[in-house]
């Protein structure tokens, strides 16, 4: 298949491009910083673009978006602006299949595996403070995607952590009990959507059960880069 990966130079995006090439797909990796893009291989095209300006999707069979920005208290517009552009570009190019990454925190809920700390402290705190502008904009993105006439899937991971090993990740509609998702599993889940129609027109939560970090270790790394 011809796959366009948006956010290709991010933690999930790099893994997604690698997995897609290894599976024999042709991949267009879209990044604002092609000079720092580390993945190589036959079938790879690296394209420089800022998706708030231009979304090069012509000729694609599927668009997989892992676009993201770090948490900030300032307004976040990347998810909504890029999605509006992506939808318009896909319509113009006649591309129908779109898979976007959102977050389980767009719909805060009780996670059976989260315990008191996650459910009663971290989730309420993060969604009300440092993550608020991100999740507000992700909800706008989700609505734009759902209201589109495309063959869409919204993928909601939980807390991301780095791993290159794909595990038997778990999928559930809208919400999950799990609190972690590895970037390798998220990438594998996104890639699976390229050829599987099970989740078309639906929102799927993806979580990892094997090899997960502790909650505090993940928070330190994701929130403070340590
Ligand atoms: N961290 C968590 O615990 C967590 C939990 C749930 C969901 N998520 C979501 O999961 C997704 C993947 O996360 P991640 O940490 O793997 O991603 P990431 O490393 O933050 O990568 C996101 C990529 O988006 C690209 N990007 C941003 N603005 C762009 C623009 N205007 N034009 C083109 N590219 C742009 C950047 O690439 P360039 O350098 O090429 O610009 C960046 O590498 C994100 O949407 C994130 O919000 C994260």
From TrEMBL:
Pfam families: NAD_binding_10. Residues 7-196 form the NAD(P)-binding domain. SUPFAM superfamilies: NAD(P)-binding Rossmann-fold domains. This is NAD(P)-dependent oxidoreductase. It comes from Micromonospora vulcania.
């Amino acid at each position: 298949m011809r796959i366009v990966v948006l956010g290709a130079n991010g933690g999930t995006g790099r893994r997604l491009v690698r997995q897609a090439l290894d599976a024999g797909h042709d991949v267009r990796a879209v990044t604002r910083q092609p000079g720092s893009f580390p993945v190589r291989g036959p079938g790879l095209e690296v394209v420089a673009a800022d998706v708030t300006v231009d979304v090069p999707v012509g000729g694609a069979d599927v668009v997989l978006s892992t676009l993201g920005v770090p948490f900030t208290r300032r307004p976040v517009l990347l998810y909504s602006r890029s999605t509006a552009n992506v939808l318009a570009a896909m319509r113009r190019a006649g591309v129908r299949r779109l898979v976007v990454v959102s977050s389980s925190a767009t719909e805060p809920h009780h996670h059976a595996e989260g315990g008191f700390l996650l459910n009663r402290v971290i989730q309420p705190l993060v969604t009300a403070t440092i993550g608020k502008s991100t999740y507000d904009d992700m909800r706008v993105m989700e609505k734009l995607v759902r209201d589109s006439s495309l063959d869409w899937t919204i993928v909601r991971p939980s807390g991301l952590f780095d791993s290159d090993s794909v595990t038997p990740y778990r999928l559930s509609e809208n919400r999950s009990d799990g609190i972690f998702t590895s970037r390798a599993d998220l990438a594998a889940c996104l890639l699976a959507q390229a050829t599987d129609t099970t989740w078309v027109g639906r929102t799927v939560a993806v979580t990892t059960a094997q090899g997960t970090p502790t909650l505090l270790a993940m928070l330190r790394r994701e929130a403070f880069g340590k």
